[in-house]
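Below is a filled-in request sheet from our internal design queue. Each sheet records the structural input a requester submitted and the sequence that came back. We keep these sheets so that new team members can see what a complete request looks like end to end.

REQUESTER: design group, bay 2
PRIORITY: normal
MODE: inverse folding
CHAIN LENGTH: 380
BACKBONE (tokenized):
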């Protein structure tokens, strides 16, 4: 519920595109940086579920304060605070998923998780439309409702069973040198992609700017929410198939497709401006994320050992976080001081660069051999 209206709420409070980029990038960076620590702690103590539970709780509490914001600087503080919860839960949660599924179905498992996660985004966007369009509520009460609903995420966690392990003696290493060679190369490539993968908020603002010229204010807000819902419908519909496809043809091949689709999406946002093009582009955006998000996590899990998988996933996310803030800030500067199209061209260039590097430095035959060996070694 919060995601589709947050960028418009920032603008309504006087935030310029630079503020939107700063808030979006800082929030994502904070969550990603914390993930290496939460992954390490969950490895060290042999328990993952407490970190997942506390992460969802922290996010829900922080959301309660967002409706009280009166200037965009308040969101600059509250959004990273809310993302602290995401940082606490993501790496341990991904480790639980990886440990609950064998290598042969791990892509499907992450695809199911992403599909369920995004189903919530679809229902949340639909509820926002009902509250905004039919009941006439403003941003603030909608954000309050979203905060209350966030607390309900804690209840199902009581039913989750994790594989409890003995506490380990691990040394926290935030270094690419500590990773296997192939994983190290993949993290570098994924980081380059992340440098061009700026905050989703600019995609929504692009649609709002276009429709503001054609429709009254309320319609210009409602249509981007619908498009965000469309993005999540496509994302959800293809998350599981993309995960299953990566199990069959390899993570690398699915990621190549995902990077290509993201690059084409950015080029489309830079050059196409019509109702039809926005519908198509938000569909491509969802398909790109379905191909990339869960597959990158599954690929990272494949290339790491079970004993330090939480740490490996945390290091992966933290490496990406180093690119997240500059990605959104660079896009914001290009948007505000050059033009919006320049921001999307920047994203396309970095995405296609990652595609070329992935194809060049992680050859298909080596990846197939690597995954085959891991599959044979996997206990039945």
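RETURNED SEQUENCE:
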């Amino acid at each position: 519920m919060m995601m589709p209206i947050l960028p418009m709420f920032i603008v309504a409070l006087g935030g310029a595109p630079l503020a939107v980029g700063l808030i979006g990038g800082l929030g994502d960076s904070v969550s990603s940086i914390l993930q290496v620590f939460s992954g390490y702690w969950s490895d060290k103590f042999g328990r993952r579920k407490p970190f997942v539970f506390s992460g969802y709780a922290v996010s829900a509490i922080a959301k309660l304060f967002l409706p009280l914001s009166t200037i965009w600087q308040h969101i600059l503080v509250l959004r990273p605070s809310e993302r602290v919860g995401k940082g606490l839960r993501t790496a341990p949660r991904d480790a639980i998923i990886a440990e609950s599924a064998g290598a042969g179905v791990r892509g499907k498992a992450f695809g199911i998780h992403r599909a369920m996660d995004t189903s919530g985004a679809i229902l949340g966007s639909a509820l926002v439309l009902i509250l905004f369009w039919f009941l006439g509520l403003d941003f603030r009460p909608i954000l309050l409702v979203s905060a209350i609903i966030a607390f309900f995420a804690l209840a199902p966690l009581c039913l989750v069973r994790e594989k409890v392990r003995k506490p380990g003696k691990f040394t926290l290493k935030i270094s690419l040198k500590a990773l296997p060679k192939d994983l190290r190369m993949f993290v570098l490539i994924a980081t380059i992609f992340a440098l061009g993968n700026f905050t989703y908020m600019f995609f929504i603002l692009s649609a709002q700017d276009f429709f503001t010229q054609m429709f009254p204010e309320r319609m210009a807000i409602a249509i981007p929410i619908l498009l965000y819902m469309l993005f999540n419908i496509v994302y959800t519909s293809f998350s599981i198939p993309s995960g299953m496809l990566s199990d069959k043809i390899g993570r690398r091949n699915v990621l190549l497709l995902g990077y290509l689709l993201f690059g084409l999406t950015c080029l489309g946002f830079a050059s196409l401006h019509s109702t039809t093009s926005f519908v198509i582009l938000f569909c491509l955006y969802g398909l790109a994320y379905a191909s990339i998000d869960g597959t990158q996590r599954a690929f990272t899990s494949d290339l790491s050992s079970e004993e330090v998988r939480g740490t490996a996933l945390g290091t992966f996310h933290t490496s990406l976080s180093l690119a997240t803030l500059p990605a959104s800030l660079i896009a914001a500067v290009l948007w505000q001081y050059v033009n919006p199209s320049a921001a999307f061209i920047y994203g396309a260039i970095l995405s296609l660069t990652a595609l070329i590097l992935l194809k060049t430095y992680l050859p298909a035959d080596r990846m197939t051999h690597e995954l085959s060996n891991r599959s044979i070694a996997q206990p039945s």
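SHEET NOTES:
- The first helix runs from residue 2 to 12.
- Residues 2-150+175-377 form a domain with the Growth Hormone; Chain: A; fold (CATH 1.20.1250.20).
FILED BY: M.R.
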